Amino acid sequence: MRKYPMFILGLLFCFGIILSAKGFLGSFFAGIFFLVTTIIFLCTLNKKVASHFLLILIVVGAGMLNHIFYNTIPKKCISKYLSNTKENKFIIGKIVNDPVFFRDRFYQPKQDLLIEVFQIGQGETAKKVSGKIKGTFYLEGHTVLKYGQTIAFNCQISLPENYSKNDGFDYRKYLFRKKIYGVFKISSSDKMKVIEELKGVRDVVKSKAFYLKDLFRQKIQIYITPPYSEIVIAMLLGDRQNLPESIKTLFINTGTMHVLAISGLHVGIICAVFFLMLKILRLPYKGRIVIVVILLILYAIMVGARASVWRASMMSVMVLLGILYDKKVNILNIIGLTFWIMLVIDPNYIYDPGFIMSYMCVFSIVITAPLFFNLGKNIFFKGKKTLIKRISLWVWESLTVSFSAWVGVMPVSAYFFHIITPASILVNLLAVPLCAIIVSLGILFFISIVLLKPLVASLAWLVQLMCGLLVESLKKMEFLGLSSFSVSEKTWYCLWIFYVFYFIIIWNIRFFMRNSQRSTENTWK
Predict the structure, then answer these.
(1) Long-range Cβ pairs for the range 392-400 (8 Å, 24+)
(2) 488-523 residue pLDDT tens
C-alpha cells in the first residue's frame, strides 16, 4: 500500500460503490458505518495496523455513501410529474449538451437535446422542478438551438420506456443513472422560444469550444467525402451518430472499434503533435507543458467530456504536471487517482462499458506489456542492434502492447457485448499506426483551417487517402477471416475467471523476475 496508495484507495472506493449498488447497506446504516469507523480511526492513529485497517473501511464506506447520495432522486424531481404515456407539457429549461444538427432516416432536420429543467407547467399549475430530460427537436419552422440557451417550449413528454421485460435492457434505469428522468419530442407544430442566452464564464467557454467543434465538423464535411468524413469526425470530434452501419459493423467485427472512440491513443497522439509544433516554434520546455495542458482541457470540453476522454486527459495532465514540477511519476498511482476522481464525480461510471474498458485497457498495458517486451528482448534480441533487429524489436513491442490491450478489454467486451475478437491483436498492428497518422494529419488540418488556409485541401486529401487505406485494409482482413465470434451470455463468468487467473499469473511472474534480478545482482556483488 505504501508504494501504490492511490491505486489501492481507488479500488477500495470502487468496491464500496459496488457493495452499495448490490444493496449491501441502506443510507442510514452506511452513514452509521462511516461515522463509527471514522471516530475509531481518529482514536487509533498511533496504532499503525488498526489505523490502516480502519482507513480501508472508511474508504469503502465513503464509496457506499457516494453511490447512495448520487442516486437519491431529488424531492422536486420532474419524474414525479410524468407518466408512462406521452402527455403535452410546458417546459422551461436550459440546454446542457452540444445539440448537433443532423437528419434522420426520413431526411428531416433535427437536433438531439439534453435539457436541465427548471419549471413544468404554466400559470397557477407551474411547478419548480429539477432533473434532466432528453429528446428530439425537429427544426422545420424553428431556428437552430445552441448550448447554454434557456428555452420555453410545449412538447410531448413521458417517463423513459422500460424494456427490461422484452430484451433484458432496462432503458429507464440506464437513463436514471445519468440523472435523465424524461424523454420528449418537439415537433414543428409545437411552440418554442429562446428566453435567455448564455450566462457565466463556464457557459461561454463551453459554447466557444462547441463552436469550434461545429466549425471543424463543417470543414471536414466540405473537404472530405462520406463515409471517410464521418470516420474522421468520430476519431477527432467524438460524434458517431452519422457513421454508416456498414462501417460500424466493419470496425466491430475486426476488433478496431476503439480507434473510432476518443481515448488514450488519440489524446497521446494529440499531445505529441502539439509538443512537436511548439518545439518547432522554439518555446521553452516548461512553457510547452503548460500550453499542452490547457489545450488538452479545452479539447476534452470540445469533444463532449466522455469518460474515456476525461480519463486519458486527466492522466496526461497529471503526468505533464509531474514533469513540470520535477516529480517522480508512478503510473499506477495516476491510474488510481483519476479512477477515484471520476467515481467521486459520477459513481455510476461503474455501469459504463466504455469507462470500464478504458481503465482495464490501460491497466493491462501498464502491467503486462513491459513484462512481455523485456522477456522477448532478453531472449530474441540480444547482441548488436542491427537495422533488422531494431525493426523486429519495434514490431515485437507493438505486438505486446496490442496483446496486453486485448487481454484487458476481452472479458469486458464478452460480458457486455457477447463478442470476442482475437484477430484484433494482429489487425491493430496496422489499424493503430494508420489511426495515428489520421489523427496527426487531422490536427494539422484543424490548425491549417485557422492559420494555413492554402494547405487545407492538401491535408484533407491526405486524411481521406489514409481513411480509405484503413477501411480497405479492414475489409481485406475481415474477408480473410480475421474477424470475431460471439459468445453465450452464460459463459461470461468463465471469461472473468480467466481474467483473474491471468493477472495472478502475471503478477507472480513479475515477482519471480524481480527476485531473480535481485539475486543476480547480489551474486555479482
Answers:
(1) 395/429, 397/369, 397/373, 398/429, 398/432, 399/425, 399/429, 400/368, 400/369, 400/372, 400/373, 400/376
(2) 665 556 666 777 787 787 777 777 766 666 655 555
d(CA 492, CA 212): 43
How much is the average pLDDT of 376-396?
Answer: 75
Cell numbers representing residue 282 in the block? 522554439
Number of helices (H), then strands (E), in the chain: 17, 10
Give the span between the Cα atoms of 207 and 97, in whole angstroms.
Answer: 10
- Beta-bridge partners for 93: 117, 151
pTM for the model stands at 0.84
- Packing angle between helix 264-280 and helix 285-302, nearest 10 degrees? 140
Query: C-alpha 275: how far from its chain's center?
Result: 23
The cell for 287 is 512553457
Residue 463 confidence (pLDDT) = 92
H/E element, 353: helix 353-380
Nearest to 6 by CA among 342, 262, 326, 457: 342
Distances (CA, A) of 61 to 35, 66, 72, 254: 9, 9, 17, 42
Report percent pLDDT > 90 for the chain: 15
Compute the CA torsion angle 263, 269, 270, 275 (nearest 10 deg): 140
Split at pLDDT 50, 70, 90, the class of 297 is confident
pLDDT of 3 higher than 60? yes
User: What secondary structure does DSSP assign to 230-269, as a single string?
Assistant: HHHHHHHH---TTS-HHHHHHHHHTT-GGGGS-SHHHHHH
Per-residue confidence at 106, pLDDT binned at 50, 70, 90?
Answer: low
* C-alpha distance from residue 445 to each of 5, 321, 452, 456 (Å): 42, 28, 9, 6
Question: All 3 cell numbers of residue 444?
Answer: 494539422
For residue 105, pLDDT over 90 is answered with no
The Cα–Cα gap between 289 and 269 comes to 15
Grid cell in block for residue 405: 490491450
Residue 107 is predicted with a pLDDT of: 66
